[in-house]
Request: fold
Amino acid sequence: MKLGVNIDHVATLRQARYAGSLHLPNAEPLLLPAAAACELAGATGITIHLRADRRHIQDQDAFELRSAIRTKLNLEMGNTPEILAIAVRLRPDEVCLVPENRQEITTEGGLDAAGQEAALMPTIRALHAAGIRVSLFVEPAPVQVEAASRLGADMVELHTGAFANAAGLAADAELDRIRAAAIQAHGLGLQVNAGHGINYENVAQLHSVPHLEELNIGHSIVSRALFTGMERAVKEMLAAMARPHPARMFIPA
Ligand code: PXP
Reply:
């Protein structure tokens, strides 16, 4: 499994102090060294979400990262004409289309690919015409995976938020949905990625999901980086990804 690190929250911290004065030389923390540390630690990509309200990543960040990063740039974006025009100029390696709602703290659900086919089709075509691979961030549900395939997406990113927030049997049930969606997506020729709410503990359980190529992880890595530094936080996540979950022991009643 490969790791894309979402560095939005490095920008969140900068914006908390410098949103109105980004031109100042002391506006920190800087995104470029954060991305470089992720790459040095072995991340295979850098992910950013350019939101309509620009609450963290700014347009200039995206363009500076585009020229600085050495791995690949994955741009998460809502399906709006404004952000699409920027994406076509930016030329990230990949775009992940996500639902976006101004009130949310983070991306809440998956994209309703099945319900929005007509609106998504021209965007996906425009991104493909610009040479950008396209992923759809969808719930692990058969109708959404089918729609992603019909729409000609290259990848799906399966939303792991419900799995991450569940415990015990409920988490197992969510994992079953993710597994089934991964098998379905792979069978349809889609690359299978996953993301949202993945942390150093629950990541091991994703070993039981077949065909998983890449994880996109942000909050837990940036949180750990406050204590360990970014490079070590990414290395520790890569180590956690390489360690399968020990098989559950059967305890007779
Ligand atoms: N993948 C997508 C599509 C997202 O929107 C996000 C959150 O920005 C993530 C992954 C990363 O989620 P987290 O910050 O919970 O690791």
In short: The two ends are 36 Å apart (CA to CA).
